[in-house]
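Q: A reviewer asked whether we had any structural model of the full assembly, not just the individual parts. We don't, so I'm hoping you can provide one. Inputs are below.
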Amino acid sequence: MAKNILLEVVTPERAVVSEEVQIVVAPGSEGEFGVLTGHTTFLTSLKEGTLRYRDASGREKYLFVKGGFAEVLPYKVTILAESAEKRDGIEN
Amino acid sequence: MATLKEVQLKIVSVKKTRQITSAMKMVATSKLRGAQAAMEAFKPYASKFAEVLGSIASNAGEEASPLLVPKNEVKKVRIVICTSDRGLCGGFNINLIKKAENYIQSNLGDKEVSFTCFGKKGRDWVQKNSMALDDAYLDVVGGKFDFSIASTSGQKLIDSFLEGAVDEVYLLFSEFVNMAKQAPVIKQILPIPAHGEEEKTEKAEKADDSVYLAEHICEPSSDVLLGEMLPKDIYIQIYDALLQTSTSVNAARMTAMENATKACDDMVDELQTIFNKTRQAAITSDLMDIVGGAEALKG
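A: Here is a predicted structure for the entire assembly that you could use as a starting point for your response.
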């Protein structure tokens, strides 16, 4: 099985996520894209939308991100968002 | 000499003042902790953003965004001034306002200056001197606020810059150096100043150290991305200024209140001495009376 990739989601107020994940699917401004480990370096702006990722144990998780950028490196994805909420954070 | 009763009342009143100042000190201490935590939480975002921005800015030209282009003639200047809402924090606001006055006098003498104010003290100063006030945001500095206040006000500044309502924008805030030192700082935020040589070499060294690759595939193009990121850079600077000012004001207030509490303690000590002396004097004179009376009876 492929190695995991590090996902970091940071907002001005806090670091929301920092963990090893299997895959990240993000809403890029030019279309949704998925990232696995070993992806080429890549920088894009993000639309408002849902960021999906599957964590190391295979569970699907969702984040709502707004006004952000994604920087993809072979071993790491960094999402810089103005705000990012976990799904349960919105529902409550 | 004051009577015994008067001294006693004074002691009570000073002790009450002491209670207030020490309570305010504790409030400032706890707010300071919150402000420092917010500052810490913001650091990863800011440094990452600067890193990414630096890497695309170095590839893109100066023409990429109108925010980078200085106006030919600078007539109208906006100063964003961050102060506290309330006093009782020593010379904190005075220092900031003095900095503004000096800066205007020495650098912007012949220009039309208007203000965006965070905090009541700055606003009051602008109004008292009947200068042009564009916007005032109260209840921000020193309390809780989030990034949206910085992005709303930042967007407004950018809009007025693009429309030509202002030609240059400066940001005046209090830098939090450490607990004992908070220094007023003024810097230009619009047009975005060109990166100095110093910064460039610093970045080059950084690139050598890490495996960070500057050549990204950019989507959309790097110029478009830069255009989107630069406004955010302004928001970040404003947010950072607000965070620093908040931390500074709470640190300044803490120090001021600690000094006030100490002064109260000293005063109580002094008054207590006076009280004892007065009491002693009263007893002595009473004794003199009794002894004198007894002597007189003996004949």
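A: Points you may want to mention in the reply: The radius of gyration of chain B is 29 Å. Helices of chain B lie at 4-59, 92-107, 120-128, 147-163, 197-209, 222-298.
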